[in-house]
Specification:
Helix content of chain A: 40-55%
Distance between the termini of chain A: 50 Å
Number of domains of chain A: 2
Shape of chain A: rod-shaped
Structural class of chain A: alpha+beta
Largest sheet of chain A: 3 strands, antiparallel
Number of strands of chain A: 5
Radius of gyration of chain A: 30 Å
CATH class of the largest domain in chain A: Mainly Alpha
Order of helices and strands of chain A: HEEEHHEE
Oligomer: homodimer
CATH topology of the largest domain in chain A: Helix Hairpins
Number of helices of chain A: 3
Strand order of the largest sheet of chain A: 1-2-3
Largest interface: A-B, 57 and 56 residues
CATH architecture of the largest domain in chain A: Orthogonal Bundle
């Protein structure tokens, strides 16, 4: 295989060559990640390590080791996903913990006030209805095991609580 | 350097030797992560790649490449931290979005009811106080930029909302 084949252009080949040569002169080693293709033309992420026993004149001979790191990359992606889910769940847990007690108090006192005939039941119902809604949200939170996100103003994203699921 | 020096015991040396030999016979390559030490005795995480041009009899000669991956591991850890923070923030954003409106309704109607002299102001204050507390929580959430966690019953952790900070 002509080594130029793995570069997209002669410029890339020349730039990479210079960087590798400089590394080899300096430390006897050059390594980097690179997108390569298998014989069946499927792409894979490779970690390429070039060493030379001739540090003074590395062009004399080099040993090139190519490690297929696509599985490692996949594993990393999975790990990142789990890590983010962990953040989502820990925050959901915190909210349930913080909000449930004040919410119970609101619900309790608004139920208590229902006995008072001087109060319009509609006004009280509006309070209760919203407190129940907040309760629905926290219940939903405590059942999330996987999540979806939504775009949100300010170039950010938030968890889609109603679209996220439970197992 | 005697190759046994990098193993903790003769058993480790023998087990590793068998695994590497099997890999080399099978694919001409064996690679794994390993805790090594630099000359100055500081530990580092290494990716070790062993290849042999003699697949039939790998013991004839092997090429061992050792890559210091401690920087890569550090970068991965940082990335994981950012990913988890992202999950925390996206959940915090969702909560603020979901809860603020019902909360405003509760606060609005409980303020309205204050004009009704038939209601004990204490009961109403209890509702308002808790609604304000929930409001404090959501305000706190919207300012979080870094977080701490707390142990929580059920062998889990939750975000420490009051201990987490803003920049």
């Amino acid at each position: 295989m002509n080594v130029r084949m793995i570069y997209k252009s002669n410029e890339d080949f020349s730039t990479a060559g210079k960087l590798i040569y400089t590394d080899l002169k300096k430390s006897g080693k050059s390594d980097f990640d690179f997108d390569l293709r298998r014989k069946d033309n499927t792409p894979f992420k490779a970690h390429v390590i070039i060493t030379s026993p001739h540090q003074e004149n590395p062009l004399e001979s080099t040993i090139v080791t190519i490690v297929d790191i696509s599985q490692r990359e996949e594993a990393q992606k999975e790990k990142m996903k789990r890590e983010k889910l962990q953040g989502v769940l820990e925050m959901a847990g915190a909210i349930c913990h913080e909000i449930n007690q004040p919410l119970q108090t609101i619900l309790g006192y608004s139920t208590l006030l229902e006995d008072n005939e001087a109060i319009s039941p509609e006004d009280l119902q509006k309070i209760k209805k919203q407190a129940i809604r907040i309760g629905d949200i926290t219940r939903r939170l405590s059942n999330i095991t996987r999540y979806k996100t939504l775009e949100y103003p300010g170039d950010t994203r938030i968890i889609d609580i109603w679209g996220s699921g439970a197992d």
